[in-house]
Amino acid sequence: MKVAALIPAAGSGTRLGLGPKAFVQVAGRSLLGRSAAALAPHVDEVLVALPAGLTLPRDVPARAVTGGETRQASVLALLRATDADVVLVHDAARPFLPGAVAGAVIAAAREVGAATAALPVADTLVRAGPGGDWGTLTPREGLWAVQTPQGFRRDLLLAAHGAALADGFAATDDAGLIARTGGAVRLVPGDARLFKVTTPGDLALAQALAPVWDAAPV
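The chain above was modelled as a monomer; its predicted structure follows.
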């Protein structure tokens, strides 16, 4: 079965404030370059959705398509640009992807049809009350924090995107679109190093981790 990695990287990165987030440098290499390089050994091709007018940096082993106005639209454009049987959808801003996680997600997607990396929630969870005070304590048992990559049979994800488009429905990730159609999504144990670089604090953490990762990639 042909496997493709899809990276929607057409976002503006407004919360980080450094321009298109995928192009932000971490220890001399872009977030996008790191993510694509981590995926490449596990797939037959890597495709990236970029903002109109931008081209791939030289350190990105992939081919580019023009992305859409939203992440969801960019993923749909990527799905239409490949004929792979199985696809991995991964955030460019998660540069530290262990190979074991990528392999496990691919295997689960082949078996079940849809899977996502995720971690059991470890922190105490509280729903804020009026004024931002402590409100309702939420039990964390059975709760998982969703990461990427997410893996799918391409035909299933295309159908889920088509249904969402017809209904005007927006989801925060692709596994949510599968679940909306009643499909099963396997939770695959992720990794704490798969954090998403979203804020300046995340970027500082990535800069600190990169030299260790580059010396002995997992």
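The CA atoms of residues 121 and 143 lie 6 Å apart.
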